[in-house]
Amino acid sequence: MELLNIKNLDLANKKVFIRCDFNVPMDEFGNISDDRRIRSAVATINYCLDQECAVILASHLGRPDGKVDEKYSLSPVARRLQQLLKRDIILASDVVGKDATEKAKALKDTEVLLLENLRYEVGETENDVELSKKLASMAEFYINDAFGVSHRAHSSVEGITHMFDNEHKAAGFLLQKEITFFGKLINNPVRPFAAIVGGSKVSGKLEALVNLLPKVDKVLIGGGMAFTFLKQMGYNVGASLVEDDLLEDAQHIMDEARRLGVKFYLPVDVVAAEKFSEDSVIKLVSAQEIPSNWMGLDIGPATVRLYRQVLNDVQTVLWNGPMGVYEMDKFARGSNKIAHFVADSYATTVVGGGDTADLVQRIGLDDEMSFISTGGGASLELLEGKILPGVLPLIIEEKE
Ligand code: AMP
User: Which residues line ligand 1 at a C-beta cut-off of 6 Å?
Assistant: First the structure.
């Protein structure tokens, strides 16, 4: 799949609109706690600045739900960008209002304007045509570099692409890199290829699991989703998270794995707790003997040993979803131990965004992984075999 390439655009001294993904996590004081997404956008922005472009940046942050809310202002992002780009960033006080439009119009070559949070506009998530038109009217070129939101048909991601012809739009370097990487991973992985899949629910990853089975050699399940499988196998899972309506799907996945010769691993022991809390009493129990009213909140030490053994010979590891409730120290050990093992291996290691990227970064192992995606949801949809709505209009049609 080839995408319209930013390098083929005649950008010199033009006005360029770049849709970025600056949806960064913030701590309780409003400080950016992980600026990976901002850093990842710098290559495309600098490329445009090197072409002496006037650069208009746009992103969403959190979910202000169509209302102006100071809490979701992009001003901390503007400050961080200023440091990273080592130049002034002009911040508009609105998205397509008077201030933004005037500032966009007056923007000179090599200046950078950041619009306010796109989701201050109710039309953004509705893919409103009028909003797309207003955004598009600010610039002569459109670049999508927001991989993390490319699975959403939103005004600044999908709608806006229809306002530019193929000579005036392209994928930025980050989007290109993510799409190329996942394409190779799915179509041509170095084997053995293992997928570690965790997180809270089977439902969120059902399609991805089904789609991954024909491509991988092993699947290692962890997190809350394991219990739906364990229950289907007839085990007593106590009060653990279970999706009863997905028991049949769980069986189908296990049957498919067997049919395809894919090794399918489930936890053999868990850290069980009486309540969902850091101060709960805990005990280590086998996966077949979780007491009623107790819930499994992490994989246990025997599972960690088993999973290390299973991962020993793999050449490619894809990891999406934590092994337990890693936000609480008591239930973070399983994820941490797997993270260390994966990081130390010589395999190509790919972390699929969101919570898994967060947990890897918390323990300082982010530099040890081969690739950390900036998009959790977007990377999952790619793995499901979907073409993302924000990417589709940027694909170059192959000639017969
Ligand atoms: P997801 O968004 O589906 O990737 O799930 C991530 C969330 O799953 C994290 O917030 C974890 O706290 C949660 N999680 C992981 N393991 C468990 C578990 N055994 N029970 C309940 N929640 C879990």
Answer: 199-201, 204, 223-224, 241, 296-297, 321-322, 324-325, 327, 355
Domains annotated on the chain, with CATH: 6-176 (3.40.50.1260), 189-383 (3.40.50.1260)
Give yes or no for a contact between 354 and 204, defined as CB atoms under 8 angstroms apart: no
> Residue 63's closest CA among 117, 116, 19, 130?
117
pLDDT digits (tens, 9 = 90+) for 174-196: 999 999 999 888 888 999 999 99
Q: How far apart are CA 182 and CA 352, in angstroms?
A: 10
Nearest to 373 by CA among 225, 187, 179: 179
pTM for this entry: 0.86
What confidence tens digit (pLDDT) does each residue in 223-274 have?
999 999 999 999 999 999 999 999 999 999 999 999 999 999 999 999 999 9
> How far, rounded to the nearest angstrom, does the alpha carbon of residue 55 sit from its chain's CA centroid?
25
HSE of 358 in the Cβ direction (CA atoms, 13 Å)? 16
Distance 134 CA to ligand 1 centre (A): 40
Residues 118, 126, 393, 116, Cα dihedral to 10°: 0
